[in-house]
Amino acid sequence: MAKILIIDDEIKLRDFLAHIVGLEGYEVVVADTCEGGLKKLEQQEIDAVLCDVKLPDGNGVQAIKNGAVEFSVKDFGKGIESKFKEKVFDRYLRILGTNKEGSGLGLAISKEFIEAQGGKISLKSELGMGCEFKFVLPKA
């Protein structure tokens, strides 16, 4: 049976999610802070994490597995066309037809920084389904 960790500081929501996930037959572990969730990840074998993105003691999804910390950010926007997927980490890339301001350096700098720390960054995207950026860093 898979074990799922639910991290959320809103008790009612966390308990509701735990109940629903439990009804589906999963073993549920809960935490109300990022620190508490990370401790549970270090102490137990966890198969999946549901995490509130805005917690008082941290932002983003964090998971420790096999000596690494994984962060994931997902949106439900229009997504990125496949012809741009390999290029989104290039310096100064701005996709034509978008109204977004910026220099086109953000993802390039992120990639260089993450790789300099021994990590990896990736993108999953499908038109009409949004994007998911993941990066993994070795645990310090």
SSE layout and pairing:
Blueprint: E1 3-7, H1 11-23, E2 27-31, H2 34-43, E3 48-51, E4 54-55, E5 58-59, E6 61-65, E7 68-74, H3 82-85, H4 106-116, E8 120-126, E9 130-138
Parallel strand pairs: 1-2, 1-3
Antiparallel strand pairs: 4-5, 6-7, 7-9, 8-9
Describe the structure.
The chain has about 140 residues and is an alpha/beta fold. About 25% of the residues lie in helices and about 35% in strands. The chain has four helices and nine strands; from the N terminus they run βαβαβββββααββ. It has helices spanning about 10-25, 35-45, 80-85, 105-115; strands at about 5, 25-30, 50, 55, 60, 60-65, 70-75, 120-125, 130-140. The strands form three sheets. The protein has a four-stranded antiparallel sheet with strand order 6-7-9-8. The chain is globular. The relative contact order is 0.15.
Pick out its properties:
140 residues, alpha/beta, Rossmann fold, Heat Shock Protein 90, 2 domains, four-stranded antiparallel beta sheet, three-stranded parallel beta sheet, 9 strands, 27% helix
Task: Please summarize what this structure is.
The chain has helices at residues 11-23, 34-43, 82-85, 106-116; strands spanning 3-7, 27-31, 48-51, 54-55, 58-59, 61-65, 68-74, 120-126, 130-138. The chain has 140 residues and is α/β, with parallel strands linked by helices.
Average pLDDT, to the nearest integer?
79
**How many structural domains are formed by the residues?**
2
Corresponding CATH architecture of the largest domain = 3-Layer(aba) Sandwich
- What is the string of helix and strand elements? EHEHEEEEEHHEE
Q: Oligomerization state of this entry?
A: single chain
